[in-house]
Amino acid sequence: MRKYTNTIARSHFCVPAILCTVMHNEGYEISQEIIAEMIGITVPTNDDQIISDIHNISYSDNDIEWGVKLKNDSINNLFSKLNVKLHETYLPINTISEERFLDVLFSHLTLGEHIVFGFNYSSLYSLPAANYGHVSLVCDIEKNEKVILLDPGPKEAGIKTVLADDLYIAIKNRTDGLWCIFRTG
Questions:
Q1: Among the residues of 51-163, which ranges form H helices?
Q2: Would you put residue 167 in left (φ > 0), alpha (ψ -120 to 50) or beta?
């Protein structure tokens, strides 16, 4: 199993935190706050957490908009600006069949890639209907079709084990995919 030092996310900072975790694993020390500042973040209008250290911030009452919204090449542009020798390739979930999902995960893990994925949090953890987006990182695949993942939180951060089929559906319910990150130099 690939070992990571988990960066616990600040509220709505799951993307910056997971990217921070990946970069830390590759020897780069860049904070989630720097990542959020560079990419931009949206938080609830009435957020009681003062975010005075981030200037590239917007506010919204729409929970679908909260967090970081990645655009084409946002991650690669971030890596380039930070002079980080990593590259991200995005695989939309609608290009991967459910039958091939575990094989795709396994092949990218075998190549030594970090696999970050966006998903519907409520769907994966069987919570009341909501469309909260979240990201986590694949650590390993067990023989019984379970995926071991690292969740940046902030709530219930840490290692979790989920069924591959449930994970596939949660990614599909968010219309997201896999962000495969690998070293370039």
A1: 74-81, 101-110, 121-124
A2: alpha
Tokens of 3: 């070992």
pLDDT number for residue 168? 98
Low-confidence residues of the chain, pLDDT below 70? 48-50, 129
How many distinct helices (H) and strands (E) make up the chain?
Answer: 6, 8
> What CATH number should be reported for the domain holding residue 30?
3.90.70.30
Query: Residue 129 has what pLDDT?
Result: 67
Which range marks the domain in which residue 116 is found? 14-183
Q: What is the pLDDT of residue 179?
A: 96
Is 6 a member of any domain?
no
Provide the domain count of the chain: 1
